[in-house]
Every structure is written in C-alpha cells, then in structure tokens.
Amino acid sequence: MSNIQPKSVHTIKALLSLLLVLLFIPKTWADVNITTTIRPLQLIAEAIVQDKGSVTAIVSASQSPHHYSMSPSDRIALAQADLLIWIGPEFETYLADFFTQRSSSEHVLTLLQADNIILHNIVDGQVDAHLWLDSRNAILIAELITQQASKLDKQNEALFKENLNQFKTQINELNRETEATLSVSPRKSYAVYHNAYQYFEKQFGLNHRFAMLVDPEVQPGIQEIISVRRRFQEQSPECLFIEPDSNLDLVNTTLAGHQLSTTTIDLLGVRITSRQGAYIELMENMARDFASCLY
What domain of life (predicted)? Predict the structure, then answer.
C-alpha cells in the first residue's frame, strides 16, 4: 500500500509542471552560451560577453587544429551552444559535416563567409584561414558576436555594445604600438615554418623570405626537403618562425646545420590564460616575438 498522501501527489505534480514550463521558457534571462572551435575566437568572444556569458573552445590550448578529432563532450558542447563560431570548412575540416547541418541557423557564424572580412590566399584558390591575425578582422568578428549576443540576451545588449567599444579602443591602441615597434629599419630577414602569419605581416608591412612547408599537415618528400635546404643556404635568413606544434625533427633535418635563431610564435594563444584583454595580449606577444627576431 502506498504511503504517499494526496497532498504530496499534488505537490509533486505541481513541481513537475513547473519544471516542464522552465525547460521550455525562451532563454531571454540566461547568460549567453557560446562555443568556438579555436582559442583565438574564444578570446574575442570573451571580450564581448565577459561575465554575462560563457565561452568555450573545443580545441584546447594544448591541441592543434591541424591534428584534432572531436570527442563526445565536444559534440555535446556544440549541440548545447546558443551561438557557434568557426572559421569555415577550409580550416576546421573535422567539423564540416556538423556545421553544414546547422548552416541555415542564424546562430552559426561562419567567418570565411562574413561580409567585409579581409581574406588572403596561400596559393591561388586556397584561402588562408588564419584571419584572426589581422586585428581589423578581430573588430569585425567582435561586431558580429555583439549583434548575435544582443539578440540572445536583450537585457545585456547595452553592456555588450559597451564592451565592443572598449575592445575597439584597445585594438586601435594596439595597432599604434605595433606600427611603432615594427616600422624601424633595417630589419633582419626571416623565414617561416609555414605561411601562417601573412594577415599580421600584410597589416604591418612585413615579408618573409620563404616558407619551409606549403601544408604543415603533409609530410614533405626528400626532394622538397633538399630544395628548402638549398633556399636556406642561398637566401640565408637570420631567423625562423615556428609554432608550438611544429615538427622540430623536420626543422633540424631541413636546416642541416645552418645557423639561425628560432622563435616560437603562439598564434593560437597556447600560453595565454582566458580573461578580459586576452586577445590583445595574444597580438602584443606576436608583435614582440617578431621584433625580437627582426631587430
């Protein structure tokens, strides 16, 4: 015989009804939940929502977007996000199928398709996806995030716009400082592990001699290594920019004893802790690392 009293039954039913109502109430009162693919996009989004939302990147600081497989927890994070932000299928190939299914949603930002975004090609017809390394693109991305976050959370629209204005002010100051740092002549010559920095280079008038690799995901053949080794000998760059996940054995094999300084560029924010101003720190570090080689 059940010990549950009629009054308790009515109470339980009332609680269940309330729970169902809460589950289906539009999330106008809730903090914005944003999921990005890579860390630099996370840093830009954090500058806008700050403590009025949560922002996560499914590719962690210790991972490489070039060698990544999506976990079940990543799929859950993507499915639960109010706003999804990615570069596009040319960069996050591992997510192309997932994002294609949601491409019609207004709450997906595909940055390679954004109006007025500055784009450069690596080779003819192949777009360079490292677009966050041009701070003018960062402002455009921040504007898009502000628009979407404001739609999702009307209550904090004014705050998001205020954070955007502050971000723009910080970017303008960053650009002035970077131009002053990198405008000095003469500069030393340099090579790069692969052509990942041209957004930053073109914004501030820099040029590398050559790139070791066309595609860091493809192991070069012996003839390609010999050809690049010859370029090091003939052009004699004074430093080489590599990345945290660069193949150092390949670098040493290619250099074959050629003496030059090597600088690791943190273009994904591996060394940076998430907080307000983190994107600015990412770009300040890049300017400082370039200057340490060039002068």
Answer: Bacteria
- Per-residue burial over 127-143, b = 16 or more CB atoms within 10 Å of its CB, e = otherwise: bbbbbbbbbebbbbbbb
From the options 1.20.1200.10, 3.40.50.1980, 3.40.190.10, 3.40.640.10, give the CATH code of 32-179. Answer: 3.40.50.1980
CB atoms within 10 A of CB 81: 21
**184-294 has which CATH code?**
3.40.50.1980
Q: At what angle do helices 222-235 and 248-255 cross, to 10 degrees?
A: 60
67-126 residue pLDDT tens: 677 788 888 888 889 999 999 888 887 777 777 776 656 789 999 999 999 999 987 778
- Fill in the DSSP letter of residue 93: G
Determine the 3-state secondary structure of 33 from DSSP: strand
Question: Going by C-beta distance under 8 Å and a sequence separation of 6 or more, which residues neighbour residue 130?
Answer: 196, 197, 198, 199, 267
Q: Where are the domains of the chain?
A: 32-179, 184-294
DSSP string across 225-243: HHHHHHHHHHH--SEEEE-
CA–CA distance, 40 with 29 (Å, rounded to integer): 27
> pLDDT tens-digit profile of 165-207?
999 999 999 999 999 999 888 789 999 999 999 999 999 999 9
* 84 within 8 A of 78, measured Cβ to Cβ: yes
